[in-house]
């Protein structure tokens, strides 16, 4: 259950930060509305996650997966690129997240 | 140098806000919930001040790395969360991964800016 809330929190956060980019400096209304609602949902889901999972692991996973998804969205939607350092970063991050989440 | 101070303020506020998020117990306790909102708004403000003179990649790398480390430390010291070699090793890898990912284009950008001078 905790991980479901965590997944929702991460997805809404990535949606909101994408909207932040699309809002063109808060100039376009629809992205701004979506991002405010999105962050609201994200932080609510995060608070529910923290009722059952440890803060240290939750925060690392939220940051880590969020960063990776943001990079991927950058590639898919904004023509950004990943280089070898980026791929190494993703691999090391994922390894770290697996270790943290498997640890007691 | 002021950018580094602004960034430190942003990181500290964000760490406080995430701890209060836990204490708020699903946003059911009022005072921590209020601190969460003020904390994140403050962190966002200081981050935007930081970005006036610091590059996005440096700021994000430091922010996410330091924030993750600090929050994990608070989890252990204040909330009595578990300490293990596996968790600590995993945390180290996460921080390294975050820095690598946030600075992946840094050398390229620096070459571009010096080439255009």
From TrEMBL, chain A:
Origin superkingdom: Bacteria
Subcellular location: Cell membrane
GO terms assigned for molecular function: transmembrane transporter activity
Membrane topology annotation: Multi-pass membrane protein
Organism of derivation: Terribacillus aidingensis
Matching SUPFAM superfamilies: Multidrug resistance efflux transporter EmrE (SSF103481)
Pfam families per the UniProt record, alphabetical: Multi_Drug_Res
Lineage: Bacteria, Bacillati, Bacillota, Bacilli, Bacillales
Keyword Amino-acid biosynthesis assigned: no
Record keywords, A-Z: Cell membrane, Membrane, Transmembrane, Transmembrane helix, Transport
PANTHER family: MULTIDRUG TRANSPORTER EMRE (PTHR30561:SF1), SMR FAMILY PROTON-DEPENDENT DRUG EFFLUX TRANSPORTER SUGE (PTHR30561)
Name the record gives this protein: Multidrug resistance protein EbrA
Transmembrane regions listed in the UniProt entry: 26-46, 58-78, 84-102
GO cellular component entries: plasma membrane
Family: Belongs to the drug/metabolite transporter (DMT) superfamily. Small multidrug resistance (SMR) (TC 2.A.7.1) family.
From TrEMBL, chain B:
Keyword set, alphabetical order: Cell membrane, Membrane, Transmembrane, Transmembrane helix, Transport
Membrane-topology descriptor: Multi-pass membrane protein
Short name of one Pfam family: Multi_Drug_Res
Main location: membrane
Alphabetized InterPro entries for the sequence: EmrE-like, Small_drug/metabolite_transptr, Small_multidrug_res
Transmembrane segments: 27-47, 59-79, 85-101
Subcellular location: Cell membrane
Any one Gene Ontology molecular-function term assigned to this protein's record: transmembrane transporter activity
One GO location term (cellular component): plasma membrane
Domain of life: Bacteria
Protein family according to the UniProt entry: Belongs to the drug/metabolite transporter (DMT) superfamily. Small multidrug resistance (SMR) (TC 2.A.7.1) family.
Protein name: Multidrug resistance protein EbrB
């Amino acid at each position: 259950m905790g991980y479901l809330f965590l997944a929702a929190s991460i997805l809404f956060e990535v949606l909101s930060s994408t909207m932040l980019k699309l809002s063109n400096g808060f100039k376009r209304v629809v992205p701004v509305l979506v991002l405010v609602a999105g962050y609201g949902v994200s932080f609510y889901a995060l608070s529910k996650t923290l009722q059952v999972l440890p803060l240290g692991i939750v925060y690392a996973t939220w940051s880590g997966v969020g960063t990776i998804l943001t990079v991927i969205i950058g590639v898919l939607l904004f023509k950004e690129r990943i280089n070898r350092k980026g791929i190494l970063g993703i691999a090391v991050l994922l390894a770290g997240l697996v270790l943290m989440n498997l640890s007691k | 140098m002021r950018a580094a101070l602004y960034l430190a303020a942003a990181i500290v506020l964000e760490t406080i806000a995430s701890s209060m998020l836990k204490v708020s117990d699903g946003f059911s306790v009022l005072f921590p919930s209020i601190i969460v909102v003020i904390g994140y708004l403050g962190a966002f403000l200081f981050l935007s001040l930081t970005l006036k003179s610091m590059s996005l990649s440096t700021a994000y790398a430091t922010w996410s790395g330091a924030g993750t480390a600090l929050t994990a430390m608070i989890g252990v010291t204040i909330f009595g969360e578990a300490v293990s070699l596996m968790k600590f090793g995993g945390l180290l890898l996460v921080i390294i991964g975050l820095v690598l990912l946030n600075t992946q284009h840094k050398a390229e950008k620096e070459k571009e800016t010096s080439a255009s001078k």
